[in-house]
Amino acid sequence: MSKIDPIHIVGGGMAGCEAAWQAVQLGVPVVIHEMRPTVETFAHQTEGLAELVCSNSFRSDDDTSNAVGLLHWEMRQANGLIIGMGDKHSLPAGGALAVDRDAFSDDVTATLKAHPLVTIERGEVAGLPPEEWGRTIVATGPLTSPALAEAVLKVTGEDSLAFFDAIAPIVHADSIDMSKAWFQSRYDKGETEEERTAYLNCPMDEAQYEAFIDALLEAPKTEFKEWEADTPYFDACLPIEVMAERGRETPRWGPMKPVGLTNPHQPDIKAHAIVQLRRENALGTLYNIVGFQTKMKYGAQTDVFRSIPGLEGAEFARLGGIHRNTFLNSPRLLGPRMELRARPDLMFAGQVTGVEGYVESASMGLLAGRIAAYEALGRELPLPPQTTAIGALLNHITGGAEEETFQPMNVNFGLFPPLENVRGGRRGKKDRKIAYTERAKADWSAWLSDAMTA
After folding, report:
1. 81-88 and 101-114 are packed helices; what angle lies between their axes, rounded to 10 degrees?
2. 94: which DSSP letter?
3. Which range scores top for mean pLDDT: 82-91, 238-247, 315-324?
4. Of 105, 36, 46, 96, which is closest to residue 66 (Cα–Cα)?
5. Phi, psi (5° rounding) for residue 15?
6. Burial category of 11 from C-beta neighbours within 10 Å (exposed 0-12, middle 13-18, buried 19 and up)
7. DSSP secondary structure of 380-399
8. Dihedral angle at the C-alpha atoms of 249, 255, 260, 262, nearest 10 degrees?
9. What's the Rg (C-alpha) of the chain?
10. What mean pLDDT is predicted for residues 112-132?
11. Distance (Å, rounded) from C-alpha 326 to C-alpha 164?
């Protein structure tokens, strides 16, 4: 058998690691180029592969009526590394899949380092990968190095490749006042007691909420550089104070909604708003404040967040922050197989393509790794149908979205082709979701089977 040239993968995040794993499972060697620790980023804390930078949640694990849970299911069926490690290092989170971020990253790193077909090279790829590398997957994620981003701009003729994302703070569990806070998942979701008590809840009455909103609005914020002034936020990850700026009630209809929870300390009193914290590690020693991404300055964060009942004495393992993310206008720049139209030897995968979320990023890495590996083997992988979660995401970034208004997107049923013979309206909503997932599962299973013989 002739020697198979390796696939080069730029970036060791979710998409890059998943792409590498899928390729080596097909017998194709890979070289992962990861710039850390040679070049650090604002948001990363370690040099580990697949580091979870923002939240530690993979979101809903419901594969019967939720698009994210369906995406989990498809990745499991395809022997995905990222979802497999997520399951292995999962934490109680009600109906969601949350992971111990350090154990997760350590295991992904060790697994890839130990594989005989994987080579990991540390150092920045400062510019477009050379053509002599052959098939290359660029999976540099939202924190693409400036040199590489500038090179992509030059070859594509684009003006910018950016938006802003934010990070939520993490609190030491033993600094939370449990005489005010309590454990409960919203609507008691979860099959086990541990899952039904996966979140810590801090209640607010109306006066406390109004004072909190005032503090949010008045707190000093991180100032953007002049060249960052026109960079938009990603709407699904807004800083909590930006939510408040859009309307004083906005946080109370978002991360601070009080529904589905009962305060055991005051069971007869309905909270006006509730702040939730989700377990950050397996030991249960750290909790992140759910939905509380922020661009407040560090000193202001401690003052404002300690005004939350139960967090008056909070000690922070990490404060929140904001960073500039990078993504392509993929419908304009990428072909149907995620290849860069201006340089077809380069594929792009992950958040840099304009999918938003850990599992969305990993799923595009999964597909890119398989496509590139098939090409290395002299075969052509058929693309997954748009009726599947991965196929719907692929279609969205490679032509399904409007070029003029393209923004990062989480997986959702709005990306799927419409269903036939399923009741519409609000009453039919649950049935439609189940029908979407049932159709997707059948089509994904068929696609996997067909791919084996392609």
Report:
1. 130
2. T
3. 82-91
4. 96
5. -70, -45
6. buried
7. -PPPPPTTSHHHHHHHIIII
8. -90
9. 22
10. 94
11. 8
DSSP class of residue 58 equals E
pLDDT band at 427, cuts 50/70/90? low
pLDDT of residue 74: 98
> What pLDDT score does 35 carry?
86
Virtual CA dihedral for 2, 129, 19, 450, nearest 10 degrees? -60
Residue 165: predicted pLDDT: 62
| Structure confidence at residue 447 (pLDDT) | 97
11 is in an annotated binding site: yes
List of E strands, 313-357: 316-318, 321-326, 339-340, 343-348
Q: Are 117 and 5 in contact (CB under 8 A)?
A: no
Residue 16 marked as a ligand binder: yes
Q: Is 12 annotated as a binding residue?
A: yes
Output the CATH code of domain 166-324: 2.40.30.260
Helical packing angle, 81-88 and 358-376, nearest 10°: 140
Residues whose CB falls within 8 Å of the CB of residue 360, separated by 6 or more in sequence, listed in order? 71, 351, 393, 410, 411
pLDDT at 160: 63
Other Cβ atoms closer than 10 A to 155? 16
Q: Which CATH number fits domain 7-161+327-453: 3.20.20.140, 3.50.50.60, 3.40.50.300, 3.30.70.270?
A: 3.50.50.60
User: Is 85 labelled as part of a ligand binding site?
Assistant: no
Tell me if 273 sits within 8 A of 155, measured CB to CB: no
What residues contact 452, with CB distance under 8 A and at least 6 apart? none
The span from the CA of 179 to the CA of 358, in Å, is 35
Structure tokens at 256: 């601070």
pLDDT at 228: 42
Cα separation values, 132 from 6, 32, 58, 99, 128, Å: 11, 16, 37, 39, 12
Asked whether the beta carbons of 345 and 131 are under 8 A apart, the reply is: yes
**Is 149 within 8 Å of 159 (Cβ atoms)?**
no
Domain ranges across the chain = 7-161+327-453, 166-324
Residue with tokens 């998409």: 15
